[in-house]
Amino acid sequence: MTATTRRAADHLVDLLVAQGTTHVFGVPGESYLAVLDAMHAREGIDFVTCRQEGGAAMAADAHGRMTGRPGVCMVTRGPGATNASAGVHVAFQDSIPMILFIGQVARDMVEREAFQEIDYRRMFGQMAKWVTQIDDASRMQEYISRAYRVAMSGRPGPVVIALPEDMLYDEVAVPPAPRYVEAPRYQPAPDTLEALKQAIAGAEKPLIMAGGGNWTEAGIAALQVFAEKQGIPVTVSLRAQGLFDNDHESYAGHFAVGKVPYLSEALEETDLLIAIGPRLGEMTTNGYTNPRPPVPSQRLAHVFPAPEEPGRVYEPEITLISDTESFCRAVAEWEPIAPERFAERRARLRGAYEAFNATSSVNNDMLAPLYKHLSETVPADAIMTNGAGNYSAWLHRFHRYRTPRSQLAPTSGSMGYGLPAAIGAAVATPEREVYAFAGDGCFMMTCQEMATAVQYGLRLTVIVVNNARYGTIRVHQEREFPGRVSGTEMVNPDFVDFAKSFGAGAYRATDLDSFAAALAEVRAQGGVNLIEIVQDRDLLAPGKRLA
Fold first, then answer.
1. What is the pLDDT of residues 474-495, one digit of tens each?
2. Between the chain's N and C termini, which has fewer beta carbons within 10 Å?
3. What's the whole-number average pLDDT of the chain?
4. SS3 for 484?
5. Which CATH class is domain 359-545?
6. What pTM, to 2 d.p., does this model score?
7. Looking at the domain that runs over 5-173, which CATH code has it been given?
8. Closest Cα partner for 139 from 121, 163, 122, 160?
9. Are strands 5-7 and 171-173 parallel, antiparallel or unpaired?
10. CA dihedral sign, ordered 14, 36, 118, 65
């Protein structure tokens, strides 16, 4: 290299730093050794070595959720890329900005089915916003700038970039300093805003449903102002509970995987549904039955940052193509329209949420008091992460999320997400308490990332709910084929000894007192910890037993 040239791998790292990327999650591979070398002793950016590429991609996804900037992951070709696809799918369905870099075979080996060669455009075509390969190192800056823009624009999502191994050693002329990419804003059309205002003025039972993955703290604050001024009750879509303070008098609950009776009734009687950010997917709409497509019985106003989404399933009466922050800032400036008309219903729905959130709503349930104690003990800004499984139903029902970015959970229902997400969150916000929830099956899918958490001295606690089975599938199995157990029973390690083998603190809880004691200890000592909750195997879901 000369004073006017730069190795492509070094140029790539320069560009990542220029875009504000502070951490790269990944598993090292020989296909991008030059990039790893470029990061050696480099200030401003750290490589977080994970134990499996799926965990690395999920950690990057969580880092993106916490920062609002693309989470970055690097993996090697072939098996590394296929492992990482689990995290890419999570980011795609949750609309999370992310960039996955994959080391690729050398350019002179393409189309020969070389060692671990895959055509990533075909592989990731349906789970990423853009999939590309940088064959010409002189265009590196063009590709990286575009990647950040694509990942953060419209409906955010993942970008996948393949890096041919030999290209990373090319020398390129040093181009001008790159421009820092900001997430673009899309202002709602004034005439359409006026149509929404008139719709609210004519409504008797309006309802807000907030969701999606492109929220900012300013947007969340503006949403609260809008709801307070207009007196409209606020609900959130699946796993979006961190978008609105659950203690607020306007908050009426979340649409879950299972049917929430009082919310289903509320949605059926709603005459104006204002959907701000959610896609209105299968889980939030109870299998596309409430609302029912294509033209819902409710008047529908759909706010979304990308024009291709509204009308895909549900035909809205009012369509606002806008990012959630710009929309909420605009409507937060409105004067009150008819809040006194909506006050009784808002109070009624809030009361229904309070009753649903109370542990007394379920009988003979050992887990509800534990989750409630956690909610009442940890700080308001504590972060809760989880993967998939019936254990998460207690968390979503009995924990109250009170601050932005306090819930990290995949709407895709991906198991194994909790621990890697906790790692990404702990790296991004080391000052906040982080708790990863997992069932025994969910935890075992990414449990090796305990080593990552310990290696980097993170502060997080894993709470494993152990019922020695794939509990969610067992529920479906008992419904469809009662008494015919097949494939859902499990034999687990001793989770306490397992966690200790990594150097983590470990505790076992069998009731509220032992859980409270363990929680107090992990909060006092910090570091990486695990609490195993031994679940009553007859307990399948909140208030539901196998018998």
1. 888 888 998 898 988 889 999 9
2. C
3. 94
4. coil
5. alpha beta
6. 0.95
7. 3.40.50.970
8. 163
9. antiparallel
10. negative
